[in-house]
Amino acid sequence: MKAKETGSKAYLISIVMVAVLGGLLFGYDTAVISGAEKGLQAFFIGAQDFTYTNGLHGFTSSSALIGCIIGSALSGLLASRLGRKRSLILAGILFFISAYGSMNPEFLLFPHGEPTYNLFITFNIYRVIGGIGVGLASAICPMYIGEVAPSNIRGMLVSWNQFAIIFGQLVVYFVNFIILGGHENPIMNEISQGVYAVSSDSDPWTIATGWRYMFGSEMVPAALFALLICLVPETPRYLVMIGKDERALAILAKINGESKARQILTDIKETITVRTEKLFTYGFLCIFVGIMLSVFQQAVGINAVLYYAPRIFKDMGMDNEMVFTVFMGVVNILFTLVAIFTVEKWGRKPLLIWGSIGMAIGALGVATTFGHEGMEMVTAVSIMVYSASFMFSWGPICWVLIAEIFPNTIRGAAVAIAVAFQWIFNFIVSSTFVPMFNMHLTPGDDFGHWFTYGLYGVVCILAALFVWKLVPETKGKTLEDMTKLWKQKK
Asked: Are 457 and 360 in contact (CB under 8 A)?
């Protein structure tokens, strides 16, 4: 009787935990390149039919992000046509195909272990396929959680998706570390501007095999996600949109209890009187805020740190860059938990503003100390402050707001546009980091180091001002309240 009145927390938690596996795969897929990129670079440097330049390696390291842009742009259409659940099943299948194809890009087409231009193209196609899965999961997982979660704990539950992303990154840092074992990353010498040669002292195992195991390891969580997502229900709000009110009520009752479920169903039906509305029905500001949340989340530069962490720590002069990378992953996990357990108490805006300030301090600390002898630990601590500040603010809270800020009738399309902008700027930041970081005004100077992190620090300050002036507080509001909020601001 009690479950009928209050709903089942165990049921809610079980379906949310399955959904956040998509977040784990998001983190796993985007961060696996951090351990594999040096071995992969050395492998393609060995090609005879083309020259694998620094620019091509930057493209290879971030090619999955092209798929992320495609996947997120398609997410609104797929979420509306296929539903949230079936779109996530598709994402899981794409993750699995990408993991196997990235591990063995020669499959059925090319001789094994012979780097060629065609193999380079094929490898990047597999990475793009995985990116499409990431793009779908990044938009639809928080949307799914936001649409099943009660309003009083929605922020916390959606924040678990960010925890899963960071946990996925930490897992893959550990997996890469274990796979590397006693082997060493390749040693590369620059022979001309942007062109490298592999040193004869390099470990051949990491060039031929290590990176393959790193990419292939993703097949296990990808298969698990694709299977488990088949067992969760469709979201009640999507079911109402397609006219299946009885099924929606049954799921709402399991989560909230029968009397509360009927009230929620009535509220949903009142805001979904029209199945779809024009994107700007609720004004330009609604869409602009969603897009700029996504833009700032990436423009602060965090993924340049997450994707290239071992390379950055090595350039700082640290002897064991993989150990520092794993340690940073642990710090990221701990500060993501701060957001999870404070977002419903402190609200969305304060966390974003304080996180922006912390990131600015960390980024400017890196800019002023990087490359100075005796300042290595100060630089490392500044990187940690920068990363930790992101993890309790823009990391999880941006996803919370994107999942809840849009009215029901435009949510699918609006989330797709916001998340597409996120991946566009992720690609811009990730693909420009290495050449920008290595810029020199005079031979051997550190101009690129301080300019890059100085730029990120300035963007962090602008992000704080944007949140303060334009972002509404959504703590405690239902998804149906968003309709009223934006109508008042028109």
From this structure: yes
